[in-house]
Amino acid sequence: METPAATILKVEGISKRYGGLQALDDVHIDVRQGEVHAVVGENGAGKSTLMKILGGIVRRDGGAISFFGGEVDFESPRESISAGISIIHQELSVLPTLNVIENVYMGRMPSRLGRVLWKEMEIGTRKVMRRVGLQANPHSLMNDLSISQCQLIEIAKAISIDARVIIMDEPNSSLSESETQILFGVIRELKQSGIAIIYVSHRIEEVLEISDRITVLRDGRYVNTIEKKDASVDKIIQMMVGRQLKREHVDNPHIGGPKLVVRGLTSKHFQDITFTLREGEILCFSGLVGAGRSELARAIFGADGYDSGEIVLDGKPVRFRSPKEALEQGIAMLAEDRKKLSLFAGLSIRINMSISQLPKLARGLWIKRKKVNQITEDFVKKLNIHLADLDYPVSSLSGGNQQKTVIARWLAIRPKILILDEPTHGVDVGAKAEIYELIRELARSGISILLISSELPEVIAMADRAIVMHEKRITGILDRAHLTEENIMACATGIITGQLNDYLSQDPAGTR
Question: Can you give the residue range of the structural domain that contains 320?
């Protein structure tokens, strides 16, 4: 039996309170040398707060931390970094207008007699870039690099400061599958060199692939730590949410007649798109990154233009010149990047939720606050939004509750059609289940749902039908009987053979 590696970082009884919110309560975790230790939990479970305490960003209220046998109390990120703990945040902290060398050595540039030692920094940068397998010019500006390259440079920076523990917070949230595998290869190399990785993620399948042990937090409390060999997706989910979650498709018997018909829609981002969305239907759009799904949705919503084709809503041709016109006709859209395109981070939850209705809730310069309160409080209950106070900034909410807040905003206008672009991106499994049930409930009420998703299990669980795009074109429209991961990927990659090809050829216009 293999002897476990030595424990190098130990957290005991950590607690942290923000006002009336107990973010962490008696949490403990131990990290061994050269292991990948995953930390999972729903949004709001306390993962980020714990990592910020380890990184010296936030001070704990109680408990103890020992590092290599000595008790530590980091008062700043600089102290944590000096000790050998480095955090790679989900939102990368690179300086885009500076080059790779400057980013790697930012805040600690070596100098002699007042002169920066650029040659020494270049040699050091090339050395750590080789360790993470990054092929790039160290003089390149960060702006000119891909997200995955920037992610590897963040890891290279951590190595350059001789970090003994690297904390990775959702490190692959913006990476493709191939880029994720490159990242995992780097993590395994770091592990072999004795560096410990604390890996924070929502993606349980990937946690099971890359981790050695998994610690689960729930509602700010420690649940358990288990070895990977004893773990499964269902077991971890149950530990995270405290209950079993249903993930199978629920039949929808309430689908009506055509609500939205798109014929031959074409632009530089998509070609000859034809499909029908029915009343009360959940129609999913699947495909690989760059297939043109989001651009198509934006064109339907009036956010972007198109060159040719026709959109018919309730039997009447329409062409929206702006989202405002689409909203007036009962079409609402939740964009993929909620932080940039949907949320007003500095404003309250109440305003974010009711802003779509404010023109109707105003009398002159005065807002009917009583009516606003009624609308927002009703949606908080209906959508089960977890919050401390409606007047707190929306940025205080977890990702899942932020998403529900934006959905509430559009439900307030009572849309006929709701376009949801990656509605569960960055959302934990418990919030996902709640959002899935909400979407099904909206469909049952007669709202037509156009749902864009990159997650195959999500498409299979939610879709009444699925449209798959490949290189700007529709390559398949799949009904429930043909909706499998294999068929979706065949259409998404453009490699369609056998019975699936025969099935799709029965409806070349894509109107099924």
Answer: 245-329+464-512
Query: By C-alpha distance, which of 93, 92, 73 is closest to 83?
Result: 73
Torsion of the alpha carbons at 430, 433, 436 and 440, rounded to the nearest 10? -130
Neighbouring CB atoms inside 10 A of 316's CB total: 8
Span 306-324, average pLDDT: 95
Look-up of token digits 């959905």: 407
Please give the Cα distance from 194 to 62 (Å, whole number). 30
336-362 average pLDDT score: 73
- Structural domain contains residue 148: yes
Same domain, 179 and 286: no
- Alpha-carbon dihedral sign for residues 420, 414, 331, 249: positive
Domain count, the chain: 2
Verify that 201 and 290 share a domain, yes or no. no
Question: Where among 212, 241, 270 does a domain terminate?
Answer: 241
Report yes or no on 410 lying in a domain.
no
Q: Same domain for 235 and 276?
A: no
Which ranges in 315-428 belong to alpha helices (H)?
323-328, 338-341, 349-354, 369-382, 399-411
Same domain, 237 and 249: no
Question: Which residues, in sequence order, are bridge partners of residue 227?
Answer: 213
From 147-151, 156-160, 176-180, 330-334, the region with the lowest mean pLDDT:
176-180
Separation of alpha carbons 246 and 233, rounded Å: 13
Decide the pairing of beta strands 362-363 and 366-367.
Answer: antiparallel
Q: How confident is the model at residue 510 (pLDDT cuts 50, 70, 90)?
A: very low
Q: Which pLDDT band, with edges at 50, 70 and 90, does 465 fall under?
A: very high
Q: Are residues 234 and 283 in the same domain?
A: no
Burial (Cβ within 10 Å: 0-12, 13-18, ≥19) of residue 471:
middle
